[in-house]
Amino acid sequence: MQKNIAFVGSISNREKAAWLAKISPLLAEAQLIRYEEITAEQRPTIEVAIVANPDPQALADLPNLRWVQSVWAGVERLVAELPHAQFEIVRMIDPNLASTMAEAVTAWTFYLHRDMPRYLCQQRRKAWIQHDLVALSDRKVGILGLGQLGRKSAERLVLNGFNVSGWSRRLTEIEGVTCLSGEEGFNDLLAQSDILICLLPLTAETRHLLDGKRLGLLPRGASLINFARGQIIDEGALLSHLATGQISHAVLDVFNTEPLPSESALWTAPNVTVLPHISAPTNIQTASKIVARNVIKYFESGEIPEAVIRSQGY
Questions:
Q1: 113 annotated active-site
Q2: Annotated catalytic residue within 66, 214, 277, 310
Q3: Neighbours of 308 (CB within 10 A)
Q4: Which of 19, 32, 215, 238 is paired with 64 by a 20 to 30 Å CA distance?
Q5: Is the previous residue joined to 259 through a cis bond, with omega within 30 degrees of 0?
Q6: Where does the D-isomer specific 2-hydroxyacid dehydrogenase NAD-binding domain lie (predicted)?
Q7: Of these residues, 113, 229, 241, 249, which one is catalytic?
Q8: Second CATH level (architecture) for the domain 98-274
Q9: Closest CA to 23 of 116, 104, 92
Q10: Could you read off the pLDDT of 25-84 as tens digits, one per residue?
Q11: Residues of the chain with CATH 3.40.50.720
């Protein structure tokens, strides 16, 4: 008997069509149906949903849903809005995503390490001024979050010669990286980071974690990269520290509201680089294969992939 799978997403019709076109051929024994096209008869037959930024209420309306597979790594909206849902939530875990993130982290770390923002400002003023180059081994880079993305990024930075430290909720070990944990370790990491990179998941504990007080622990003139979630950083506090020179530059790929509103002061701040959430886009080719493999395995054995721990948010 053919299985029905829902595709639920608050994304464009073009994006939905692209995902369905990639995933459907890999699910020979199942029918992948857009949520909007599910009939009343089909609704109770659906045990699995594939989701891309879904409306949580749409999932709550599927009475026999057992688990959802996100095509993205971020699932905080589902966790926040459906804390007591009976179904499991599975994040996208794609080794290709970790490699893509490590590439972005390395590129923008070099951007800051080699003073690119400073030279760009000088170009605009037609100023020919050379500055001393800091040795890679003397550039202290701190990474907040040492999950799959953080670990790969840390390893890539070490290979490139940076002096790398990392913080995670639970102490871990990465060759060549000084690993820290706990509140004292968190503060120590901030105090020693010339370049701070945020790769933390958004949870109740990490929301506005980088507030004015904690950003003030960074060495004066430190710079910041946020490739995690905008809500982790207090934007007002960040702007204040940028204005005083406590933070010399911020590379931001994520924001409280996306797209970033035109009236946001971040657009015009001279020491902010604004990116349109492009640091680690999901690769539809590799992600579709992972989704199909997880779904097929479930229908064959009843096994649900490793799910999000709701109390942790990831």
A1: no
A2: 277
A3: 19
A4: 19
A5: yes
A6: 110-279
A7: 229
A8: 3-Layer(aba) Sandwich (3.40)
A9: 92
A10: 999 889 999 999 999 999 999 999 999 989 888 998 999 999 999 998 778 888 888 777
A11: 3-94+282-301, 98-274
